[in-house]
Design a protein that fits this description.
heterodimer, A: alpha+beta, 23 helices, globular, B: alpha/beta, Rossmann fold, 6-stranded mixed sheet, 3-stranded antiparallel sheet, 11 helices, 15 strands, 22% strand
Chain lengths: 537, 435
């Protein structure tokens, strides 16, 4: 792996200037490497993060079955990674004009990583740098604990798709309040109303007293003097407040891995405490990859939109327009059958920009029902670009599709839901147009998106961990339940149960065109002493 | 400013569009910048490195069992188009997690994808034969997308691993038929300086090597041969030498039911097991194994190579008798029983139109007379009860009668690699400690 030469780097710097002028924003520094086949082999196993910790599964070809991306939510062949500085990888035989196109694509990805709110938790640090420290930590632990480190990695990775990603985002968005404010909240919301059971009149009097105090002495001193009075009246206040805030802390939403680290007796034994640092590494890595998989269509669409636009505006590539068109049409062509996130995302951004420019995201437009009136509607306000910049800042794939894939879009690009069925008599697979309704198309896209199951958990009096799979119309993959629960039992140190739904029977209708009716049943799995059992509920 | 004008000599662009066949019905996440934008191919692994790590992986797996955790490494799907003894081993594993199972419940239909272009709702826009070789390999995994970490080895190597690492039985008696070995004389050995026949290619290579060490080749792209020195020792000759040659000792018939009912998991299991059996026999007979591949639904046909055998899929009814009849015909026509130890391995789900086995049983008996061992693998669904073939085999008491010659192994469709290997043990063991 070596850095690109000065000549190519100067092309990249030229691209950066032009991209900035067009409105993209990204950090100044970036690293570009030429990779060989061998480098790529090593990198792809580690999701292109050069410093990722070593783990034997990375050396094995993982089963490429259906749902692969549910299991490994990262793309093994990404060109640019979300680090500081951003690192990107190139073939050594790319001609210059192709590099110009890829550079713009990469810069738009960097802009996306560094401005889309779903990446917020990755902004403050360099993942590759931390990964190096983690890699060393795990190597050191391995020299002491040997293969047991790999077992802990394995079991932690078994639940890493249940990581509290949205919770992590929420905590950035809603940072903890300062102590003074929290005390005010407790006093008025909890202490007076629940514990002292104040009447409404007395309660209002307290509020008035507090407001007066703040008015006279300013918010800080006023609050403090108010609480001096409170303590005089209720000497037990401080103690109660302390108890409450500790309880509150415990009730903070946690994902399974955090929960194990805080509450598993097994992990908190002196001799097992090292396991917690391994779990933390796995958890951090999973959190890092979460936004990537949830913005695939937007991210690729955004990058393709900009490489398309900036390449053709670039004065340095004169004479290579045809070469470019060839490559670009391969990348950005809507497939006859199949989903191409590059093409779909690009079309959506172009479509959104056009509609925003014409003022179509407005009530006046939405209430039009006449097709012709809708087509001819044009209240140019010229803020199309601002609009797509806002979209790239605030949305992820799910919201993007729900909001912008409409019938106009589906019609314009002649999109359809494609079905595949077996024709037994002709011995062929037939691909057919299943539906051209936007509603169905949207549903099909959403079903194709990454969506890990939602698992709630609680501990009963006997210390048994009860997991409840929130039913969303899909069962869990049955073959994976045993080993996943085995890992959870190991980390928890006590028995574990799982409540979930599975298919009891299919009621097939005579008409083969109709979906069979699925009868569900509720079951409970128990993992105790590494033995799995199942009962019907 | 035109900064691109001083670029080095233009290299040819090796960008090629990704093959479209396998792309169909790939989801949103199946594409990535490095492959699609830069036109790179997926990297492929290195044989030596992988082979070593394969042994390490198996060692790790054994250790897992001792530590009280289930094994995790599976010997992956093995396909290699064309050449005879080449198969591809992919050690695979899967990281189990709680994930949604998004199967389509509609019969004969796979889940939906997107598309664009002309066509009314309901209209069929494309059609692909299901039994086109390579259209969709029965194994599914590894193929097409493979590449990374592929371990290319010959089947012999896998056979060795199976025998040593998975403790499969060694054949007690490597055949009652005579092993013929004889000598031939052939121009195979090489000698420098003198000999019977000049090997031009090797000689040119040697001359170039010598001159490169002498510094007579300043630019490898513009070779000036007039400056070359040619030493007598650079001439490479072939000389006549004595070679030992073997007659083949074992002949294996692999027979697979590829009817409609075999669809999916059942096929996968049978094929995976047959690959392992093939590898194991190859090792047992020190590579002296001939193979014949037969597929059947209501009719049987012989196919050329393992790859076709592995990847063909059709949908039809089942007549098991057709397969055994074809085997008997082949054996008789070619008088194979005189020179070979014959093995027949048959994989099916046990569905048969011949419900009582009236036509099938006599053919099987005939095959048994010729063969050293007939091994039948029944891959059935757990909840379907006893299959037709199993029931008529039981009724006929054929298996008890001819224990030394015929074995039956019933595998559930959800069997794992361990179970498959256990199955081979049952099908091939000499003493007959079958359950």
């Amino acid at each position: 792996m070596q850095l690109i030469d000065q000549h190519t780097k100067s092309i990249m710097e030229g691209c950066k200037e032009r991209a900035r002028e067009a409105g993209l924003s990204f950090c100044d520094e970036s690293l570009e490497y030429i990779v060989t086949n061998r480098d790529l082999l090593e990198l792809s196993a580690k999701s292109m993060i050069p410093n990722l910790y070593d783990y034997w599964v990375h050396d094995v070809d993982v089963l490429r079955e259906k749902g692969r991306y549910e299991l490994y939510p990262s793309n093994p062949y990404e060109t640019v990674i979300n680090t500081r500085p951003a690192i990107s990888y190139y073939n050594d035989n790319n001609p210059d004009w192709l590099n110009v196109m890829i550079f713009y694509h990469v810069l738009a990805h960097m802009d996306f990583f560094q401005n889309n709110m779903y990446f917020q938790h990755t902004w403050a640090y360099d993942f590759n740098g931390e990964a190096l420290a983690d890699k060393r930590l795990i190597a050191r632990l391995r020299s002491t604990y040997g293969r047991w480190v790999d077992y802990v990695i394995e079991f932690a990775r078994g639940v890493d798709n249940l990581v509290g990603y949205f919770n992590a985002l929420y905590q950035i968005d809603q940072p903890e309040k300062p102590a003074r404010e929290k005390m005010v909240d407790y006093y008025f919301d909890q202490f007076l109303q629940v514990e002292e059971e104040f009447t409404q009149v007395d309660y209002l009097k307290e509020i008035e007293a507090f407001n007066r105090s703040v008015r006279e002495d300013g918010s800080e001193t006023g609050t403090d003097t108010f609480f001096i009075r409170v303590r005089r009246k209720y000497p037990e206040f401080d103690e109660k407040y302390k108890n409450w805030s500790e309880k509150e802390k415990k009730q903070r939403k946690q994902d399974l891995m955090e929960f194990f680290m805080d509450h598993s007796d097994f992990l908190n034994r002196q001799e097992n405490k090292w396991m917690k640092s391994v779990i933390e590494v796995v958890r951090k890595t999973s959190l890092f990859f979460q936004p990537q998989i949830r913005t695939k269509i937007m991210n690729e669409g955004w990058a393709t939109y900009w490489n398309d636009r900036l390449f053709l505006e670039d004065d340095r590539i004169n004479g290579h327009e045809i070469d470019f068109s060839k490559v670009n049409s391969q990348v950005a062509a809507l497939s006859r059958i199949g989903l191409n996130p590059y093409a779909l995302g690009l079309r959506l951004f172009q479509n959104i920009k056009g509609k925003a420019e014409a003022g179509k995201y407005s009530y006046t437009f939405e209430k039009l029902v006449d097709q012709k009136a809708r087509r001819d509607f044009n209240k140019t306000n010229g803020d199309g670009l601002d609009f797509i910049f806002a979209v790239r800042r605030h949305l992820c794939d799910g919201l993007f599709i729900r909001r912008f894939v409409d019938q106009d879009f589906v019609d314009q690009h002649r999109l359809f839901v494609a079905g595949k069925k077996l024709n037994r008599s002709k011995r062929t697979w037939q691909y057919y147009v299943k539906s051209r309704k936007a509603e169905d198309y949207r549903k099909m896209l959403l079903e194709n998106l990454y969506h890990p199951p939602s698992i709630r958990f609680s501990v009963d009096a006997g210390g048994v961990l009860n997991l409840i799979h929130v039913f969303e119309g899909y069962p869990l993959v049955k073959d994976f339940i045993a080993n996943t629960m085995l890992g959870i039992e190991y980390l928890w140190g006590k028995p574990v149960t799982l409540e979930t739904h599975q298919v009891k029977q299919l009621n097939k209708t005579d008409d083969k065109q109709e979906e069979p009716e699925v009868i569900w049943e509720k079951v409970k799995y128990t993992m105790d002493q590494r033995k799995l059992s199942m009962e019907w509920i | 400013m035109n900064s691109l004008s001083k670029k080095p000599a233009q290299k040819t662009v090796r960008w090629a569009p990704p093959a479209s066949g396998s792309e169909i019905f790939r989801g949103i996440y199946g594409r990535s910048d490095f492959i699609h934008l830069q036109g790179a191919s997926r990297p492929s692994g290195d044989f030596d490195v992988c082979l070593r790590s394969f042994e390490e992986l198996l060692e790790r797996d054994r250790q897992r069992e001792k530590d009280g955790f289930p094994r995790k490494i599976k010997i992956g799907r093995l396909v290699r188009p064309g050449t005879k003894n080449r198969v591809t081993v992919v050690p695979t594993t899967v990281e189990e997690k709680f994930v949604h199972d998004t199967i389509a419940y509609k019969e004969d239909e796979e889940s939906a994808s997107g598309g664009s272009g002309e066509g009314e709702a309901g209209e069929i826009i494309d059609e692909r034969p299901i039994d086109a070789p390579g259209a969709q390999g029965a194994g599914g995994a590894g193929e097409g997308e493979g590449g990374a970490h592929e371990l290319e080895s010959d089947a012999y190597e896998i056979g060795r691993i199976l025998t040593e690492k998975f403790e499969l039985p060694n054949l007690q008696d490597k055949g009652k038929k005579r092993s013929l070995s004889y000598y031939t004389y052939d121009l195979t050995d090489k000698h420098r300086g003198s000999g019977q026949l000049l090997d031009k290619k090797a000689t040119l290579r040697k001359i170039l090597e010598t001159n490169m060490t002498l510094g007579a080749v300043p630019d490898i792209n513009h070779i000036d041969t007039t400056r070359f020195l040619i030493a007598p020792r650079d001439k490479v000759f072939r000389i006549l030498s004595r070679e030992r040659d073997y007659e083949s000792q074992a002949l294996v018939f692999f027979v697979r039911d590829y009817s409609g009912s075999m669809w999916g998991k059942a096929t996968e299991i049978v094929v995976a097991q047959h690959v392992l059996i093939y590898s194991w026999l190859l090792y047992q007979y020190a590579r002296q194994v001939e193979t014949r591949f037969i597929l059947h639904d209501t009719e049987a046909k012989e196919v050329e190579d393992f790859y076709t055998y592995y990847s063909l899929r059709v949908a039809g009814g089942t007549k098991i008798v057709s397969a055994f009849r074809l085997i008997n015909d082949i054996i008789e026509e070619e008088s194979l029983y005189r020179d070979y130890n014959i093995y027949v391995f048959h994989g099916t789900d046990g569905d048969d139109w011949d419900t009582k086995g009236e036509a099938t049983l006599p053919e099987i008996r005939k095959t048994i007379d010729y063969a050293n061992r007939v091994g039948i693998t029944l891959a059935a669904s757990e909840n379907r009860g006893i299959s037709r073939m199993a029931s008529y085999l039981n009724d006929s008491r054929l298996i008890e009668e001819k224990r030394a010659k015929i074995r039956l192994d019933q595998i559930s469709k959800s069997a794992d690699e361990q179970r498959l290997i256990e199955g081979i043990r049952r099908l091939t063991s000499e003493d007959g400690d079958e359950r």
